[in-house]
Specification:
The protein is of the alpha/beta class and 418 residues long. It folds into two domains: 4-32 and 285-410, Lyase, Ornithine Decarboxylase, Chain A, domain 1; 95-278, Alpha-Beta Barrel (TIM Barrel). It is 29% helix and 26% strand. The strands form three sheets. Strands 4, 14, 15, 16, 17, 18, 19, 20 and 21 form a nine-stranded mixed sheet that branches. α4 links the parallel β6 and β7 (99-101). The structure holds ligand LLP.
Length: 418
């Protein structure tokens, strides 16, 4: 069931009128649905019932504290890529032991902080990172639990910017070299080898690439076992896509079932804990970006709806050519015309949607769909625009979960010359 729909000609988010949110908190504003996030997590959890599985939430998709808190309460683990994301997990009282620390460029300071916090596992991506981590851990008198991120060289068949599991990508340790790196890892004093992981990309809409990656990882697990290296967990990363337009990704249930069947054919049940790092599949469809039309401009060539949101709020269209649905909050009865929806930023790349059939006038509210993942987190202050407000709805309640940035805050860290 969608969490937003029109009732009596008005768009509602759960039981809250979006026009009321705009009135109260202004625009542009991100609106998230607590129920949609909970339901997404619960679907994964249900599909994993009776198995040793941890669904980690990849904070990079949307790291608002309210979102992290909600998922912590549901029992999610977390996938982080920076000390900043770790702090967010800790800020909501999340369990550091259920955190995996991913990323190709962890600094020594970040490693130290994560070790001191008691992070569950480091997903290590290179030999040099492994050595640094061993040294940092030793200096603290600890051992770092490590899983090596292998690059399975599988084509996720997604946008090249978000494809990560191909040989030419910067991610992971080449499949053919992983065995040797594991042997080195096993001999390092500050390292405790506990797992293996991979992540082949994002917005993947087929099951086959996940299974191909699982097979490649399972092959390595067997080889490592033959080398006397016993792992405790297998982490298959994230990447499940969502529907933006007409994509037809597998359901959460179908993906989980297919992966478990494949793993069951390789290993005795329960031998390994299975982990995932989903971001988009948990929050992508659970957010809207609410914006108001400032002007309609017809150049003769094109008709533009100039709105108060811009590429600094939602960069996915200009960066990946991404398509986000546009829904009028109070649809007008009248002839629709193709509109390009653009923001106030001084770049031709500042577009949010193109050639959408709409009947709109200045002052109208529009909602961009599927803005729950990789939207607010990728926003910027370009053109000295404060970041949008964020609101979470839950039933008939709407809560401000991040204030709109004030313009003074944008230069509060700056100094004029003395
Ligand atoms: N684990 C690792 C190691 C990752 O690099 C990522 C995403 C995830 C998990 C979560 O992937 P997800 O389940 O959300 O697909 N900004 C792009 C997406 C970049 C994804 C980066 N890595 C976009 O807006 O489409």
């Amino acid at each position: 069931m969608p969490w937003y729909d029109h009732r009596n000609g008005e768009l509602f988010a759960e039981a809250v009128r979006l026009a009321d949110i705009a009135e109260r908190y202004g625009t542009p504003t991100f609106v998230y649905s607590a129920s949609a996030i909970r339901n997404a997590y619960r679907e994964f959890a249900k599909a994993c019932a009776g198995r040793r599985v941890t669904i980690c939430y990849a904070l990079k998709a949307n790291s608002n504290l309210a979102v992290v808190d909600l998922l912590a309460r549901e029992g999610a683990g977390f996938d982080i890529v920076s000390a900043g994301e770790l702090r967010r997990v800790l800020a909501v009282g999340g369990d550091p032991a259920r955190v995996v620390f991913s990323g190709v460029g962890k600094s020594a300071a970040e490693m130290r902080e994560a070790l001191e916090a008691g992070v569950g596992c480091f997903n290590v991506e290179s030999d040099s990172e492994l050595e640094r981590l061993s040294e940092v851990a030793q200096a603290l008198g600890r051992r770092a639990a490590v899983s090596l991120r292998v690059n399975p060289d599988v084509d996720a068949r997604t946008h090249p910017y978000i494809s990560t599991g191909l040989r030419q990508n910067k991610f992971g340790i080449a499949h053919g070299r992983a065995r040797a790196t594991y042997r080195r890892a096993a001999g390092l004093p500050g390292i405790d080898v506990v797992g293996i992981d991979c992540h082949i990309g994002s917005q993947i809409t087929e099951i086959a690439p996940f299974l191909a990656a699982a097979d490649r990882v399972a092959d390595l697990v067997d080889e490592l076992r033959a080398d006397g290296i016993e792992l405790r967990h297998i982490d298959l990363g994230g990447g499940l896509g969502v529907r933006y337009r007409d994509e037809d990704p597998p359901s959460r249930q179908a993906l989980m079932q297919a992966i478990f069947e494949r793993l069951d054919s390789r290993f005795e049940a329960g031998r390994y804990e299975i982990m995932f790092e989903f971001g988009r599949a948990l929050v992508g469809n659970a957010g809207l970006l609410l914006t108001r039309v400032e002007y309609i401009k017809d150049t003769g060539e094109r008709r533009f709806a100039i709105v108060d949101a811009a590429m600094n709020d939602l960069i996915r269209p200009s960066l990946y050519d991404a398509w986000h649905g546009v829904v009028p909050v109070r649809p007008r009865a009248g002839a629709t015309l193709p509109h390009d929806i653009v923001g106030p930023v001084c770049e031709s790349g500042d577009w949010l949607a193109r050639e959408r059939m709409l009947c709109v006038e200045p002052g109208d509210l529009l909602a961009f769909e599927s803005a729950g993942a990789y939207a607010m987190v990728m926003s910027s202050n370009y053109n000295s625009r404060g970041r949008a407000a964020e609101v979470m709805v839950d039933g008939d309640r709407a809560q401000l979960v991040r204030e709109r940035e004030s313009l003074e805050s944008l230069y509060a860290l700056e100094r004029t010359l003395k």
